[in-house]
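Example 3.2
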Amino acid sequence: MKKLVFAVSAAALAGCATNYRVPVEEAPPQWRDDGTKLQLSPVDGSVEAFGGTMKRGDVLLQFEVENLRTGVIQDAVTWTSPFGLEQTLDAGTPVYARQFTMTMQRTYNYIPTGPRTNLNSINNPIEWCAPREDDAVCIFWEGPEKARYIDSGGGVPQSVSLTSPSGMNGPVPTIIEQDVEFGNPLQVRMVITRLNEKEIRLMSRLYDGDDWTSFGGGTRRIKWEDKANVINLFGGKFEIDPVKEDDGDIKEVVVTVVEAPENVTLMTMNELLDALVAMQAAREAASEDSADEDASSGGDEASGEAGEEQPTDE
């Protein structure tokens, strides 16, 4: 789950834009989580792995991704921008669902001075985002008669991030959920972004046409001195061998696909947290079993060792 974070400060909002208000009443079904993953999902059978001689800017791996919960706006909606300009989403505009969570944290000179509060802990409707040429606008449900239109602050049009909770009031659109075509295919690519005599760097990028943003784990760095030139990428295994020139510089590498990935799996933030919790629980269970075995075989001395293990239960 992506998080929309803002700081309580004296910064003035542009125009008459105001902060999103968490609704007190339950949203209608089209604005509620229905169990569909509200993030990008890999398209089965789209993964491609590449080998051979490569240089900076070349791609080792790529696969397509898509938004799973999509729809169109039934009737045109109009609102006013912070600069007084009329904004419109026409009938039939394609949209995709996201669930941003707004948190608040007090700061002093940008340094946190208190705990972070989840303002959506009780009520967290989903949002619908409409891609535009260079960005997107996301629609936040605030009640039966009011929505807030917030411009994206990063990402790509078909997968945005938000940097501010500030937006403009507008009407609540009716969303007809259906499969839609957004125009550009979305593609994740693992790109060589740096290559020299010391290292190679690979960046995971999400492409929406020619526009791109960093994706997932970001940058992978391999130092030649470590000789760790076999890496795992999205379920595949690649061997990367540097090609040294006469002066010792490295401008090319030979990439061998040791094991091609078949299908890619991306975890949501909640799934990742659940996996980490499960791993911690497994460690604690293994620690307790080991402590019990030591206690049963070592008497008082073993009981003392078991006592030392107990802080790991926290």
